[in-house]
User: Fold this.
Amino acid sequence: MAGEGKKAGGSLIELVVIVAIALGVALAIQAFLVKPFRIPSESMVPTLEIGQRVLVDRIGMRFTDPERGDVMVFKPPRGADEGMCGVSHPAEQPCPRSTPGKSDTNFIKRVVGLPGERLSIRRGRVFIDGEPLDEPYITPDAQCALCNMPEGIVVPEGQYYMLGDNRGASADSREWGPVPRDNMIGNAFATYWPPSKWGGL
Assistant:
């Protein structure tokens, strides 16, 4: 009987150790490699719906810069939650400069403007250096308050312009400005929930 008690105790300790190791590995993966993220709003419709879950590649940001079209999770500039631009500017112009610092909130948007490019917004569509981007993934809106900003701005070096695909229902760089590269968390590369939406982005 005593031998059986020792055996049971040893099995319990082994189980606790296995669970602790598994938890540690899961936390390490989330901290350094891949992080799950839940879509909180309709700003990325039709690409991503509210409540949909994506996987975010954290390690890639250490070796490569964001590219146009990437769907990124990031910390927006401080004050973005209240729609704060870093400078006063005409209503016909997208926000050209963000506030210093970063918000505590995680946002998800698409990279549309790269460092040094001249960007404007017309009828909900992005123009780079006067030419319209090919944006088959967006829900355009010609009438929203942030959809007609024909006076161009130059994206600052080391920063990126981030817009939601649902142009009439997204608070994004048009309102609070470009995002520094250091604020980027990672590229959303796949969706895993609900199962019907499973696949790459």
The longest strand covers residues 184-193.
